Amino acid sequence: MTEAILLVGGKGTRLRPVTVNTPKPMVPAAGVPFLTHQLARARAAGVEHIVLATSYLAEVFEPYFGDGSSLGLHLEYVTEVEPLGTGGAIRNVAPRLTSGPDEPVLIFNGDILTGLDIRALVDTHETSGADVSLHLTRVEDPRAFGLVPTDPTGRVTAFLEKPQTPEEIVTDQINAGAYVFRRSVIDTIPADRPVSVERETFPGLLADGAHLQGMVDSTYWLDLGTPQAFVRGSADLVLGRAPSPAVPGRCGDRLVVAGATVAPDAKLTGGTVIGEGATVGEGARIDGSAVMAGAVVEPGAVVTDSLVGEGARIGARTVLHGAVIGDGAHVGADNELRDGVRVWCGARLPDASVRFSSDQ
């Protein structure tokens, strides 16, 4: 296996304001853009050539990763003029692929943090003779996902999008966002129009009698589509719960990126990461949180399960719990923000002006 497609064109709407200035795959997780972890894991599995299907803020990717040689990869970039959906994005990059018609091509969604055994998925694809193989994982509450029931041999029998009633929940197996396509199957996807691989391509292939194989791999898996999930994923990378060869340092309770300044009596726990050039003041306590590059957490502030954007400032003694602070925002001293509150990029909250949560 030497070739893959990474779908990195989404707008990251659920992650706003984190994605106002930065595409979702480039938001730092454990000190580096999240995409770095995916690229490093693909390379470790033997992938050499990756085509990035870009759209939203597409101009950000290539200046950072270049030709991929620093990661031991050959990277190419294809930008959609108009968003084409997951299937359309796959078809749009097909001319850049070099695989033969019957060779496997790996495809990854750009917002999934997973411990998937990539090599095992490819082996499953090749030994089963499938046209498409899907990574499946099991979840306790599958209502927000697409269900993928399989027969005893692992062959996919149906695709059921986001069931709501108990009768519709026939399995706890969901589409986990990683696939292996037979190269020739990619060419059957309609070109130059939006296509959903989940709602159109896969059900269509199944209806036409194609062989779709599921491989259940229940190692670490997390959809990073919400701020709360993204913060947790970053912390899990730092703690070593989620595997990645790209974490810039040893796994542990904290990760302080080179160039950051942390007061000696500040307490960092729970997989907290402090980005390049960020400052943490005296007596501050930060747990399970991500503080982005250039941000400032002033003395005595308490930050828990929160994300502090680039260049943002958190005032002295302010409390954040499950909050998201956009790039360049300034939260004054003695405020309290909880339970999913989001402060937009560049916003200013005066001292002692706010004590509320998102459900108030």
TrEMBL record:
InterPro entries: GMPPB_C (IPR056729), Mannose-1P_guanyltransferase (IPR050486), NTP_transferase_dom (IPR005835), Nucleotide-diphossugar_trans (IPR029044)
Origin superkingdom: Bacteria
Domain Nucleotidyl transferase: 4-236
UniProt domain Mannose-1-phosphate guanyltransferase C-terminal: residue ranges: 253-333
Family stated for the protein in its record: Belongs to the transferase hexapeptide repeat family.
Name the record gives this protein: NDP-sugar synthase
Organism name: Streptomyces tamarix
Taxonomic classification: Bacteria, Bacillati, Actinomycetota, Actinomycetes, Kitasatosporales
